[in-house]
Amino acid sequence: MPKSDEDVIVKVEKLKKYYPLKVGFFKALFTKKIPFVRAVDGISFQIKREEVLGLVGESGCGKTTTGKCILKLIEPTAGKIIFDGTDITNLPEKEMRKFRSKMQIIFQDPYESLNPRLSVLDIVAEPLTIQKIEEDPDKVRERVEKVLDAMGLTPPEEFLYRFPHELSGGQRQRVAIARAFVVNPEFIVADEPVSMLDASIRSEVIKLMKRLLKEFHCSYLYITHDIALARYMCDRIAVMYLGKIVEKAATEDLIKKPLHPYTEALLAAVPVPDPTARRIEVVIKGEVASPISPPPGCRFHPRCPYATDKCKKEEPKLTEVSKGRFVACHYPLS
Amino acid sequence: MSSDETLLQISGLKMYYETLRGWVRAVDDVTLTMQKGDSFGLAGESGCGKTSIAMSILRLLPSNAKIIDGKIVFENIDILALPEEKLRREIRWKKISAIFQGAMNSLHPTMPIGKQIAEAILAHEKVDKKEALERAGKLLDLVGIGAERLDRYPHELSGGMKQRTMIAMALACNPHLVIADEPTTALDVIIEAQILQVMKELQRKLGLSMILISHDLSIIAEICNKVAIMYAGKIVEYGTVVDIYKNPLHPYTQKLIAAFPSILGRKTELASIEGFPPNLLAPPPGCRFHPRCPYATDKCKKEEPELIDVGKGEQHLVACHLVG
Question: Given an 8 Å threshold on Cβ–Cβ distance, is B189 in contact with A252?
Answer without folding.
Answer: no
